[in-house]
Design brief:
It is built from four helices and three strands; from the N terminus they run H-H-E-E-H-E-H. It is α+β, with helices and mostly antiparallel strands. A hairpin with a 5-residue loop joins strand 1 and strand 2. Helix 2 crosses helix 3.
Length: about 170
């Protein structure tokens, strides 16, 4: 926080004032104590878990940034740390980052069995045209430029046909 809270930030009005920046600075030395205690106790318990950082939050809880190298249940460790320090201690598992997935293969047909498997696209499944003629959107993927041009053309046609009409509303 950059300044003293004003009267308009009174807890009775809009919420609860959970702390001041000076309170966080005073607690700054406690984070290393929690980190060291967590690492030592995890080693004593034989947990395959290393802690790299800790965040002390203004709500009175802590988040340990941990990196497990094998599956483990650290519930007892966090309960023990919470009892020792007097506030909730949670884990942020750094090994569980976002996962990228490969893009699905583009569709080559209209969804009917064996559609698009021949050289004629939808015409090879007996529908008599379709994707291979460019009249269906389920065929090969359109580029952003192709879609923009398509909708620009539709808008121009719409404006030509509505030039002399009076709107109902």
């Amino acid at each position: 926080m950059l300044c003293e809270p004003a009267a308009r930030f009174d807890a009775a009005d809009d919420g609860e004032l959970v702390g001041r920046a000076a309170d966080g600075e005073a607690a700054g030395s406690g984070d290393q104590e929690i980190l060291a205690a967590a690492q030592a106790r995890a080693a004593e318990l034989g947990l395959p878990l290393a802690f790299v950082d800790v965040e002390l939050l203004l709500d009175g809880s802590a988040i340990l940034h941990g990196l497990p190298w094998a599956a483990c249940d650290a519930t007892a460790l966090f309960e023990e740390l919470a009892g020792r320090f007097g506030f909730p201690v949670r884990l942020l598992d750094l090994s569980r980052g976002p996962v990228a997935h490969d893009a699905p293969e583009p569709s080559r047909g209209c969804g009917k069995p064996d559609c698009g498997s021949g050289s004629g696209g939808c015409s090879s499944c007996g529908t008599g045209g379709g994707c291979s003629t460019g009249s269906c959107s389920r065929g090969s993927a359109k580029t952003a430029d192709a879609l923009t041009a398509y909708f620009r053309d539709l808008r121009a046609k719409m404006e030509q046909h509505t030039a002399g009409r009076t709107p109902l509303a």
